[in-house]
Amino acid sequence: MTRDGHGGRDESSLVQAVRMRHTVLLDALRSRLWPVPALGVVAAVVAGIAIPELDGAVDQHLPTALADYLFGGGADAAREILGAIATSLITVTSLTFSLTLVTLQLASSQYSPRLLRTFAADRFVQRTLGLFLATFAYALTVLRTVRNDSDVAREFVPQIAVTLSYVLAVASVLALVLFLGHLVRQIRIETMLDHVRTDIENTAGRLLEPIDDHPRHDLAPTPPQFASPLTARSSGFLVEIDEQALLTAAVDADAVIWIDRPVGSDLVAGVPVAFAWRAGSSRGSLDDDEAASVHECVAAALKVGIERTTTQDVGYGLRQLTDVVIRALSPGINDPTTAVHGLNSCSAVLCGLAGYHLGRRILRDDDQVARVVLARPDLPDLLDLVCDQTQLYGASDPAVLGRLLTMLRELAWVVVSPGHRDAVADRVRRLERVIAEQRFDPVDRRRFEQLAARAREALDRRWPPT
Question: Is residue 25 assigned to a domain?
Fold first, then answer.
């Protein structure tokens, strides 16, 4: 991401910024239940007004072969059909909402409240609710156009509109059957874990750079003592960082901006979240006006929300997976098999993330001067996120401890950076200390020793081979 000296933004940077804004907007809409049903209702009302107008223009001119397949009853029969469809669909919609809320409650209490966003973003549920509400709204809108023969107006029965209402009702019945099957599948722990893992992979593929044959070793400048602290303007979770805005502000002020908190961190108003100082040969502190200007830009570039999202937060998915593991280990649930399933997903995610550049990200200007340093979690941070609480609450469960050691062996095969390999080795030692403090029988202890030895063997191998 670059910016030239005359203030013109680099085209690729603009494209990337637009794509990121588009991704943020789509994620905001996708994670809410109302947009798709609301769009369906609007479309249904428009169709309910337009199709009867079409009926008035073409019903008398339809060929007999086609008219035989359309509704052929009178105005009273049309009212009964449309009324029955509207009544039944609003009942089915209420049932669907109730089942969805029960599923959300089950996911929150049984697994993790942070999985609610995943359920709300389920497109099948959104489209099913949209179909039900659209059919209801369409039937009511068409109903108002049906007229009996009178002195004021002739009888009018919109054949195409009533027939379409029947087709939508049949489609809604089929959708209800599919929805029930889908809901049963969605509440399975394997399905939920797979959704979270897929979200993490998509986020990593969009934000992170794959490691090539020569790993990058950028040295990020550290904030000097005289750096100006930049505080948060509001409290909440850091959900998004506008990288292009930060780079522009740093170039304009001839400064370096150090963002101290990664996306997903909880911010407190008035507490420093970044530091800024003058760059280049004139390295020093910013004056008050420059610091105030940079502060305004940083505050605008750091988007704060009430909940974490997967848009730019690489660690949020692992937080969700770890929550499932911890909740399964709680005395009230006591489901170590679910905990092991969660660790399976954690292992797959960590091994996948090991193939990307993690840690701090440096944004440079056209002269390759470091202008912005962004905080991002490194592999040791993510490994601690998975292991710390899991080994605390699962310290007495042989299956959980064994899966943790297996996960470390799997990770040892794919990590390349010496720092990452040291983190895996340290975690093996810490896990062995936890195991030594427990009262396991000799068979379990020998199995743990074998798993730890295999993890060390994987670390000792030169991988990938030359």
Answer: no
Is residue 214 a part of any domain in this protein? no
pLDDT at 9 over 50: no
The residue from 154, 187, 220 where one domain ends is 187
Residue 163 forms part of a structural domain: yes
pLDDT at position 143 is 95
Using only the alpha carbons of the chain, give its radius of gyration.
Answer: 30
Answer whether 161's CB lies under 8 Å from 139's CB.
no
Confidence of residue 4 (pLDDT cuts 50, 70, 90): very low
Is the domain of 182 the same as that of 37?
Answer: yes
3-class state of residue 373 by DSSP: strand
Mean pLDDT of 241-264: 94
Per the structure, the complete domain to which residue 333 belongs is given by 315-356+378-460
**Cα gap 15→431, rounded to integer Å:** 46
Taking 3-state DSSP, the helix, strand and coil percentages for the chain, each rounded to the nearest 5, stand at 60, 10, 30
The answer to whether 366 touches 425, Cβ cutoff 8 Å, is: no
Q: For residues 69 and 75, what is the distance between their CA atoms, to the nearest angstrom?
A: 17
Find, among 222, 329, 238, the residue nearest to 283 by Cα. Answer: 222
Lowest mean pLDDT among 28-32, 353-357, 389-393: 28-32
Q: Which pLDDT does position 411 carry in this prediction?
A: 97
What is d(CA 112, CA 114) in angstroms, rounded to the nearest whole number?
Answer: 5
pLDDT digits (tens, 9 = 90+) for 143-190: 999 988 876 678 899 999 999 999 999 999 999 999 999 988 888 889
The token pair that represents 398 in the structure block:
């042989």
Within a domain: 284: no
Number of domains observed in the structure of the chain: 2
Rounded Cα–Cα distance for residues 453 and 444 (Å): 14
What's 69's DSSP letter? T
Q: How far is CA 103 from CA 97, 119, 185, in A?
A: 10, 8, 11
Answer whether 227's CB lies under 8 Å from 277's CB: yes
Structure tokens given for 443: 């068979």
pLDDT for 217 beyond 90: no
Which of 187, 209, 232 lies at the terminal end of a domain, its last residue?
A: 187
What the block records as the tokens of 369 is 């001067």
- Are 35 and 177 in the same domain? yes
